[in-house]
Amino acid sequence: MEILIPALLTIITAATPLLFAALGELVTEKSGVLNLGIEGMMVMGAIIGFVTVHVTGSATLAILASLVAGALMASIFAVLVLKFHASQVPTGLALTIFGIGLSALIGQSMIGIAYDGLPVISIPLLSSIPVLGELLFKHDILVFLSIVMVFVVTWFLYRSRAGLILRAVGDSHDAAHAMGYSVIKIRFLAILFGGAMAGVGGAYLSLAYSPLWVEQMTAGRGWIALALVVFATWRPGRVLLGAYLFGGITILQLHAQALGIGIPSQVMSMLPYLATIVVLVIISSDQSKIKLNSPASLGKAFHPSR
Q: Which residues contact 74 (CB under 8 A, 6 or more apart)?
């Protein structure tokens, strides 16, 4: 238990930023938009959150600033794609490159500065339960919020009228437009939500996971979050499962080295990305399943004048 509990706690912390980013992208894709700029939005959330907590000393303000930073980055993508009808794939890639470069510029003076990390919240009575109390009821606020957001997104997509409209836009934007719904507005709001969630995921990296700033500290987690959405077949509950699975693979390298397993560290570092490729290859082999679950209008531009 002395080894198992710390390992499971590390998996939870590794999965949290993936869960935030993947849930945001899931909502974005449900509206019919493919945003490949998650990595750029996450890294901007990470640096803005770290700068804010360093200047103000408030973790709450830092999280809110990261949320706004991610949403602002997403708004750039939304304007280019929805207003000027830019292609979604290259625009998302450009957003990632822009975010990585801008975050490095902003964070030049932050390198080498450490932060104490987000305070741990213990839920009264429940946190005192042996083993389960420490695993489930004793975390920082963002871990609890990530779990709550799974239920919120699930309820929104499948139990609310607004979620039904969002899914209708993603499945057939022309039909939704004919019924009088503003496809552009709905997709714009979905993109902003996805950016805000990615920004919060980035904030978790710099405020809790490794509370300091390092250039490109997202280390490809945005791309893993993209793969998670496909892995989950666009369902929030499966995103939770996938995030913790990939989180476990991510920290496997650390515990393998601690146990003295004779595998080169470079090979262990490859595991999360190798797993991402394998999962995508397996899922892509079943095209009928993808067509059945993916939004029909995903990646397709909408032209209301036509």
A: 35, 37, 41, 191, 192, 194, 195, 196, 198
| Nearest residue to 224 via CA among 263, 192, 271 | 271
Its domain, for residue 277, covers 4-293
Whether the Cβ atoms of residue 104 and residue 215 lie closer than 8 Å to each other: yes
In a domain, 300, yes or no: no
* Overall pTM surpassing 0.85 (yes/no): yes
- Residue 257 has a pLDDT of 62
| 52-59, long-range: CB < 8 A, 24+ apart | 53/115, 53/207, 54/110, 54/113, 54/115, 59/118, 59/119, 59/207
Assess contact for 268 and 255: CB atoms under 8 A.
Answer: no
Report helix angle 161-171 to 4-30, nearest 10. Answer: 70
Contact call for residues 43 and 217 (beta carbons, < 8 A): yes
How many structural domains is the chain composed of?
1
Per-residue pLDDT tens for 28-58? 999 999 999 999 999 999 999 999 999 999 9
Q: List, as one string, the DSSP characters of 209-235.
A: IS-B--TTTTTTHHHHHHHHHHHTTT-
Highest mean pLDDT: which of 192-206, 248-262, 288-302?
Answer: 192-206
Q: Calculate Rg over the CA atoms of the chain.
A: 19
Residue 30 CB burial class (10 angstroms; 0-12, 13-18, ≥19): buried
- Report whether 157 contacts 236 (CB < 8 A): yes
Residue 298 lies in a domain: no
Tokens of 251: 């920290």
